[in-house]
Specification:
homodimer, 510 residues, alpha+beta, BirA Bifunctional Protein, domain 2, Rossmann fold, Translation Initiation Factor IF3, 3 domains, five-stranded mixed β-sheet, protein biosynthesis (chains A, B), nucleotide-binding (chains A, B)
Chain lengths: 510, 510
């Protein structure tokens, strides 16, 4: 479809231009999601105008189409944490090496990826300075300064910022990049129970970002000891799954740091009994990775598919003026449609460009993933209706202009729900229970997300990793879901044969 | 006042705690604005809880009290530029050296301040990578890629981000820091007139930030050739003035870059006649420096003075429960007052802490600059009124609770206006016309902002700089105001004696 229409559109343009337009707007992807997922993904993020590749490997330009998604999620999350009395702050990008290295496990986790500034202008710095990979060690010396008594608690801060992790393996837009945007929350409490409670409150917000905004089903659970945050007490996460690659992906994490950082950074306080006590800390973050997961889960061979709640443009209105038709009438109807939708709080735009055909525009906005297209041609004008076409399932229907707003509302709600339902069906179809090593290996080879009974021993997880190591990566634990199926007495660990302690999700992952 | 009340407040606290509380909340500043401005400023930004000094020189922690001001300005500016169809994006923090050095004048302006990443983990990078001091050279290679035809124009982007300028002279919180937050807009147009128009539209938004939000009078004008943006065509700015130091301060800049960067980065397009043409570009920015100017202009010896429009807390409500008074009744009245104000859209909070006296709280919130304090004691409760105390002029009045909301609204409006009026009076009192070199030098020694007739020759400006060089810095041009007084025929340049071309503001500056 895209090809034919695009051809028609470009008859007036020079050959040079035609080629470039084709390349720039990516009418049609050259790779298919089912056939070459990696290529398809690299292509769709550019053709959908989310990303531009940058001349430094692993860094990407986030284009306006990306930023509008990010800003919508940010508005939601920022308002929610403000309700929780968490306050925004901004700590420096730079960390001095002494502070960075204070927590041993933590720095071991991050050291290989730290970027170092050693020069300014032509001069060498006296001491190299690190760029934050995360801000625990940046912030906690000041927590120690600010927290004296129990009345200074809880201390609840958040910052929206960029962080740098100079990874060398497989840079992938959104998913694994050397610089990314995120929020990082850092909180300190007098009692462990308060910290535990907040960990789950934040995790629930992350679930809502994925499920309610991005229409992606996630599993809430706890990370294994081996996979938890370096230096923390325990890590909870929301885990998504990409059926096409059979890989789990950590969606966002909410850590209880326990008192480990408090010890290193001497964050103590006088409690209400006048005794010296140590704070309990959390840290939690979600990043622009969310957007990559959304692209992977919903995108198709025509381009992006954006859930209405996060789409910068929810409805694109396209005039279809045949020759001799009442062009002005059609354009006015488009204008009125956009106005009516905007006034009702929808994000709608019209595409009035006169150098592209309607068909070209259909393909263009499909590539960009706009959830609903409205076409208005002479017949629609005559019947006082518009034609609506859904991006997710291509369903078409005519809507009387009198009931435009309510029907668009219903359709957008339905698209949002339907994207989630389809994604959940696809994800659920990938979940496989494995009780033995053979079942586990078979499921792994079939790209499944494996739910297996496990003895919960770190050595066994390391052993599974070693035994499944291969070109496409080893299997590891994704999480132990909070929602645990019944574990029959006597159930054995699929890997060690020891008594199983819990059900855990395993798989390859990003 | 603060001293006496604070003493009373701390009778129950341990000596150790008392000292720390004193230190932490800064009840009373040890330096006076009139006597030692530099010390006063260093102290007030910490005691007012805007800043915490950081262990890397020239980097500062922006505390929540700062971020709430920043976010309010950001919400205003972001909404305004979105109305202008400017879209947010995010380009990488890192620049490769080849691209950075493409525009010669530009890199000469920034090179000494560029921070370089040369290592990741333990490995040396093949090529050192720069951290953006500003993003012209980061963005414009992609402008060249994205702009092909006249229909791709205008291209209007903005980003909210951090930038790094590794300056070595006099780091000062907000005013001169090695990392700061800002927005940077980058736009490209087909015609110079469009670019010129936008330069002024943006400048007007900057004026509104200063005058309408921060209550600081600024002068709109054009920078001299010597002071314009490195690599640009011309620079416009809003200029503020700090009477206490007699220094001008560049508030924000809106540059027309002309076609200079377009040439270097080959940003050309096919115009509507099918000819190859070069784009016209602008860039414009304001930063967290705005907050420093606000502190300097409005702050006093009791602490910060925040204009109501940017204060995180506009009204602080403090219960004053004398012994034997109806404490619950007073607390309830405080609660009701906060609720009524919040529901009417004001940012109000109550300070119910039981370990501080009312007097201590007065001093604390005065230090933090909250525009209006409401006190509720037994007498107020009995008379169904509250007592309101203005931060800016200490004026007190009783408000019947029946008219609370409207009177608070009027008072906040009046405080906002009055802060501006006083600041303008003070600024205007510093403006001095100088027509001769002697008048100029006298005014300069008297810390004036000097309006002088000038021949507009770069050599003359350099000469003035050389002749006024001294410990506290040389005089330079601040701007040539758009609002030019009449220039009588035959008026001569104060410095060169050549015919004057325009009136220009001169002075020492930050």
């Amino acid at each position: 479809m895209a090809g034919g229409e695009a051809k028609k559109a470009s008859t007036n343009a020079s050959n040079r231009k035609k080629k470039e337009v084709k390349k720039e707007t990516g009418l049609g992807l050259s790779s298919k999601k089912d056939e070459n997922f990696g290529e398809w993904y690299s292509e769709i993020v550019v053709s959908g105008e989310l990303i531009e590749y940058y001349d430094i490997s692993g860094c990407y330009i986030l284009r306006p189409w990306t930023m509008s998604i990010w800003e919508i999620m940010q508005a939601f999350f920022d308002a929610e944490i403000k309700k929780m009395k968490i306050k925004n702050c901004y700590f420096p990008l730079f960390v001095s090496p002494g502070v960075l290295q204070k927590e041993k496990d933590h720095i071991e986790g991050f050291a290989p990826e730290v970027a170092w500034v050693t020069k300014s202008g032509q001069s060498d710095l006296d001491v190299p300075i690190a760029i934050r990979p995360t801000s625990e060690t940046v912030m906690y010396p000041y927590f120690s300064k600010w927290i004296r008594g129990h009345r200074d608690l809880p201390l609840k801060l958040n910052q929206w910022c960029n962080v740098v992790r100079w990874e060398f393996s497989n840079p992938t837009p959104f998913i694994r990049s050397r610089e990314f945007l995120w929020q990082e929350g850092h909180t300190a409490f007098a009692a462990k129970e308060e910290a535990d409670k907040e960990v789950l409150e934040i995790l629930e917000l992350y679930r809502r970002i994925y499920e309610d905004y991005l229409a992606i089903p996630v599993i809430k659970g706890k990370k294994s000891e081996h996979e938890k945050f370096a230096g923390g007490l325990y890590t909870t996460s929301v885990e998504a799954f990409i059926p096409h690659t059979g890989r789990g992906i950590q969606g966002a994490t909410s850590h209880c740091l326990g008192q480990n950082f408090a010890k290193m950074f001497e964050i103590d306080f006088e409690n209400d009994k006048g005794e010296k006590a140590m704070v309990w800390q959390n840290s939690w973050a979600y990043s622009t990775r969310t957007i990559g997961v959304m692209v992977m889960v919903h995108g198709d061979d025509k381009g992006l598919v954006l859930p209405p709640k996060i789409a910068a443009v929810q409805v694109i209105v396209i005039p279809v003026p045949y020759k001799d038709a009442d062009t002005k009438g059609i354009f006015d109807a488009c204008d009125d449609t956009v106005k009516a939708l905007n006034e009702s709080g929808f994000r709608a735009e019209a595409d009035f460009r006169d150098n592209y055909s309607p068909g070209w525009k259909y393909s263009h906005w499909e590539m960009k993933g706009v959830p609903l297209r409205i076409e208005i041609g002479p017949k629609d004008l005559a019947n006082d209706q518009v034609r609506a076409v859904r991006r997710d399932n291509s369903a078409k229907c005519d809507i009387p202009r009198a009931s435009l707003v309510e029907q668009v509302k219903d359709m957008l709600d339905d698209i949002q729900q339907s994207l989630f339902d389809v994604a959940k069906q696809n994800r659920d179809a990938c979940v496989q229970v494995a009780k033995t090593w053979d079942e586990f290996m078979e499921a792994l080879n079939n790209k499944k997300m494996i739910l297996a009974p496990w003895c919960d021993e770190e050595e066994v997880e390391k052993d599974v990793k070693a035994r499944t190591k291969g070109e496409i990566g080893a299997a590891k634990t994704l999480c132990s879901p909070f929602d645990q199926p019944a574990l029959d007495e006597g159930t054995l660990c699929f890997a060690s044969g020891k008594p199983a302690k819990k059900w855990t999700y395993w798989g390859r992952s990003y």
